[in-house]
Amino acid sequence: MKLYKYFSKYEIILWCSSVIFIFLAFLLFDKENYLTLIASLIGATALIFNAKGNPFGQFLIIIFSILYGIISFGFAYYGEMITYLGMSMPMAVLALISWIKNPYNENKAEVKVNRIKHREIIFMLVLTVIVSVIFYFILAFFNTANLLPSTLSVATSFIAVYLTFRRSPYFALAYAANDVVLIILWTLASVENISYLSVVICFLVFLINDMYGFSSWLKMQKRQSP
Fold it and tell me: What angle do CA 82, 86, 91 make, to 5 degrees?
């Protein structure tokens, strides 16, 4: 696959800009936590592939989830650690399988967009509430920093991974909501350690990419509709 032909000019500019901002944030606020830098670069790359409906993006999300879980453990954000290692990573594996098994017109580089029905949306929301309540008590037991925002992150993450697995365009919008929560969480963390501002900027970059991903999937859905 020739990447310069596969991605549009806008997508190439978006990815390059994301990488530049992530590097600048690392040089300005961190300079030490190379794991954060690597995770951020992998995450940004995953999002540009996800925006194309390419299963490779889910493979990168699996790697990102592992690295982000380790980073979260370092600041006692056990909610983020448990969410990504215990939920996001396994769901990314399932999503990868789902995307591979459901190509659009036998094009392995593009997944077939799915439409979920109202009953399933209700089921998803009920399941989200149950998962969030369970996680609230688990996180409280571990004295998780910023408990309420961490629980909200669990809720938005669960919706995002569920919709990703189901191949709904709205997974990107759910991830964008999760990005906003994470920006708040890591801003609070940066009050104690300014190096975490690099993580804040990382999720600002992710927010922009996820919004583009949502727009891209809506176009994919329209194009794939008979």
Answer: 135
Per-residue H/E/C for the chain: CCHHHHCCHHHHHHHHHHHHHHHHHHHHHCCCCHHHHHHHHHHHHHHHHHHCCCCHHHHHHHHHHHHHHHHHHHCCCHHHHHHHHHHHHHHHHHHHHHHHHCEECCEEEEECCCCCCHHHHHHHHHHHHHHHHHHHHHHHHCCCCCHHHHHHHHHHHHHHHHHHHCCCCHHHHHHHHHHHHHHHHHHHHHHHCHHHHHHHHHHHHHHHHHHHHHHHHHHHHHHHCC
The pTM for the full model equals 0.90
pLDDT digits (tens, 9 = 90+) for 61-75: 999 999 988 888 877
At 135-189, the pLDDT tens digits run 899 888 888 778 888 889 889 989 999 999 999 999 999 999 999 998 998 898 8
- From residue 38, alpha-carbon distances to 27, 69, 152, 161, 217 in Å are 13, 13, 26, 22, 26
Domain borders along the chain are 8-224
What pLDDT is recorded for position 225?
87
